[in-house]
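Suppose you are handed a protein chain with no further information: no name, no annotation, nothing but its sequence. What can you learn? This example shows the usual starting point.
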Amino acid sequence: MQKEYSLDSTEFPSLKSVSRKIFDIIADQLDVNTAYITKRGNNEMTVISTFNKKEEIIPEGYSVKYSDTYCRKIIMNEEDAFCTENLTRDVMTKELEVTSQLQMKGFLGVTLTDLDGNVFGTLCVMDPEEKIFSQEDVDYLKAMGDVLAHIIELDHTQYNLGFLNVPIIPVRTGISILPVQGIIDEKRAEIITRTVLEYAANQKIEHLVIDLSGLVIVDGEFPHVFINVIHALKLMGVNILLTGISPAIAQHELSNNEILKMNIHISRNLEAALEHIGFHLQSQ
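A reasonable first move is to predict its three-dimensional structure. Written in structure tokens, the prediction is:
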């Protein structure tokens, strides 16, 4: 299954910084005006880093519907690459709206993946003049893409590291809150399970409020770690309350009913959850 990066296009600082330095080298090596990286979204390709030697052709933030992009030609190609001497004459690109908008001719692009081989987007170059790209040029751009794959992983790892801790907040004896933030991958799932169960046992927790408002949903799947943790906590005699159900979680629940099947209390916010168990927040 393809990894869907939850990071916004502005949240790849390392990739943007390193790519700008690499673009200058690529542009000289391939004798082109423009080099850029796109990130694939659900329905569109968005330029997240770009270099224009002379005139600006592709600005950062430029977004095009996936079906109308050169990127689709690249990603769908068995060779993970696509090049043409002249975009305006090539049978595969001349009718695309983006071709008439950009008025570019020479083009070469390769699929940009992460270290696991998941499609992240594309690495492309283009020029207003006709260009004939050799297999050596294709291999060169793919090699640059391999370098950038490590930078993508660095940004993704740094993003996840910010959420690796499990901050359980004690309210009073027997009552605590677990605010969930970010992406829950396999490693975090193990940490959450171990930490929460040990905490509940050691602190003799009677009521645990799990706040999901900061949870990032990936691939439309609700992390099953919470289903497992809730079942385990209930076996330990802990009363569970859920709050912060986002539209994404609610949409997933419509077809799965995993949360409702557990027969636990769901509140609209933290204050309502605490009031349900008899703890009232009072302003000073």
